[in-house]
User: What shape does this take?
Amino acid sequence: MADNEFNELAGRIEAISTLVLHAIADLEMSEFIDGQGFTKGMRQVAEDLQFPQPHLDATRRTLLELAGALDSARMNR
Assistant: This one.
């Protein structure tokens, strides 16, 4: 993959992650979801990923990072 293709893909993934984080935070602030329960579930999903596919390490790490970002945002509101 060329650098410009990688940067395009990385930018699109970052945009989706940002959108999802903001949507979840909005739902939490509107009391449509339990934010703490949601991030607990995210961590459980990350823990349950035990298949040997190489990309799952990044999946696991990303889920944990997103859960941490949501928890940090909650603490700062």
